[in-house]
């Protein structure tokens, strides 16, 4: 049997080497690349509210999840809410075209919610030959983030215009226009109304959640927060509550491992994060109080290497909320058609 296995392995290797010969490999790659490069992942969607989860992780290392990132498409509006590291690259890889990006909203100014802003800017700029800065909207301090990115990318912007020309990378499009906004309506275009509300992520202050409303469909995003009555109030009667979630019982295992290996400072960080996030059970309580149809958990901590750990992560959340609970992962798409109560799920 071992000899037969070895022969089979050698045949597979030989077949792989034959297929990898330059002409065949080049032809196969070209065919695949042409199909992927020409893809428009969001084309043909019925009118409604479409959400693409481009980053459902945290700063804790997770090979499967980018940092916080949510794409919102509604009518002629295309927005990002947060742009953590890796999220925008995933969108581009899935075939989501960002040339029509209208703006980016930040929930707060933690690094894991804004480290992916540079690729968002570049893909919008060159994808549409934008001549105006990209709006960057969020709590006070957002304008300084925009200024910092503009300073960092000033040389890059001149290089790209010089290389590609005004027809592709025109001067003026490779920058952000920062807007510090108070709680209240921060976006009102073509039927899409987004309202910021304050949440409790102390010492991060202010930090926002967002209520997203379009043609009778409503989704509320908590942002990063400890369990907050403000989230339930904003989500009253909404279709979907998207809430961050951290399971302390599972994080405790990471803490013990770090402490045992002498990494005391990092172990203390994993203790500190417990007091300004929300457990799955608490999120379920808020969803029940708000009367939403569906609860979607994101900003998942700690990383879950397999669906086998979903039950341990949720704890008794399913007993506290009788609607559907999803643990979001990168690539999840929710579509809420206008004029309907349906909530359709798909994947990119």
Give a brief description.
This protein is of the alpha/beta class and 348 residues long.
Explain this structure to me?
With 348 residues, the protein is of the alpha/beta class. The protein has helices at residues 2-19, 22-37, 87-94, 117-128, 142-152, 154-164, 229-234, 248-260, 264-272, 280-290, 310-314, 317-320, and strands spanning 48-55, 69-74, 77-83, 103-105, 134-138, 176-180, 184-189, 192-201, 204-214, 217-221, 240-246, 294-301, 324-327, 332-337, 344-347. The strands form two sheets. Strands 6-5-4-3-2-1-14-15 form an eight-stranded mixed β-sheet. A seven-stranded mixed β-sheet has the order 7-8-9-10-11-12-13. Helix 8 runs antiparallel to helix 9 (264-272). The chain is globular. The two termini are 41 Å apart.
Mean pLDDT: 93
Into which percentage range does the β-strand content fall? 25-35%
Query: What class do helices, strands and sheet pairing give?
Result: alpha/beta
Number of helices: 12
Sequence of strands across the biggest β-sheet: 6-5-4-3-2-1-14-15
Biggest sheet overview: 8 strands, mixed
**How far do the termini sit from each other?**
41 Å
